[in-house]
Amino acid sequence: MAMFSLREFDAEVGRIILINPSFDFDSYPPLGEKLVSLLSASVVETQSDADLHSWLIDFEGCQLFLRAEHYSETMWIEALSPQTGVEELQYLAQLFAMGIG
């Protein structure tokens, strides 16, 4: 079974919600790094709040947010704005639909 797969893709708002392994606030960073590595992406910047990790990542020259909320154990990737990263998100949605990891 794939480590990461597609739960939902909302092209209109530019968001991919993932099916992912369980995690908590402290165990998320290695999981996020694993996903970033599988995508051959890189982390540009990270921010952690009370229950949310927000990472700015670079995927093939396109900057996207990788976010993870530990109470719901939900991870998602979203565009910086609905008008950017459309092709990249469509590609990633297809990749996650097949499952990766």
From TrEMBL:
Keyword Protease appears in the UniProt entry: yes
Keywords of the record: Aminopeptidase, Hydrolase, Protease
GO MF assignments: aminopeptidase activity
Source domain of life: Bacteria
Cross-referenced InterPro entries: DUF3630
Species this protein is from: Vibrio rumoiensis 1S-45
Protein name, as recorded: Aminopeptidase
